Amino acid sequence: MSSDPAGTIYDIQGFSVQDGPGIRTTVFLKGCPLRCPWCHSPESRRFDIQLSWQSRRCIGTAVCGLCLVSCPRGAIVPAEGSQSTDTEDGLQLIRVDWDTCDDCGLCAAECPAGALSMWGKRYTVSEVVDRALRDRPFFEKSGGGVTISGGEPLSQAEFTLALLRALKENGLHTALDTTGFAPWAVVEKALPHVDLFLLDLKNMDGRAHNAAVGVPNQPILENARGIAAAGGKMQIRIPVIPRFNDSGGNLRALGKFVAELGEAVTLVQLLPYHALGVPKWERIKHDGPILEATAPSDKKIGELKAILEEYSLTIQVH
User: Fold this and answer.
1) CATH 3.30.70.20 fits 52-119, yes or no
2) Are strands 24-29 and 94-96 parallel, antiparallel or unpaired?
């Protein structure tokens, strides 16, 4: 094992207030074994560094075109016709042939407007800790700390465990935002270094869970029980996805399960589906499918919240 392991991260976000208590620095790791079609961070799914293309930033081939000649595979080609921007002038934009692109990044290195960029960067544990320590004054005033998120951070187990350990050695509060889909041996190693698990629970029906996201729910539920038995603390996060897990029956099954975890659960958060992440899918090579649905109404969320409250749970709508 390296003395300073490296991991692939796609974002480090300071002043985060939605990923655990207080003001936090959230570290987003790439790579996830789940394939949720409603994922609002599709750039987190792949483990490797990948190309991103934002047409609204492109300044057009007439004044630039550097990407066209920089790609050794010919994966950057002129788009058919012209596309308008916020101005009245039409621009001849480019198109990425995703089947040909190998994410080498040469086009992104040449793009002066940042229309082509790379999602993901390698960081060592010490680099992330140094970044987090810059925010220590905010942590101390607000009761915050560092949250490691993803993707699924436990899929980069060596890096995540080393980072958690280093953060605790520096006296920082740690939270781990996880799908829970990881070997128990990895979760168990994380336990001494995690002050709070932010654990997603989606559907208690194993068959429906596997069909929608591509993995069974049994390991997730077993890990939740294991964390509780070991004395860990959890906030349970339930994404409310239309036609997948928003039935009263599923919420009652979830409520019963979470209540059985006892005092390990400090809070249950309902996360209503939103479509804000849909445009991100268009920027990258992806394996779909993509869910586009109507966000649940306030009335619907209120009904689901009331069901969970029947189990004496503290509920927050995020």
Assistant:
1) yes
2) unpaired
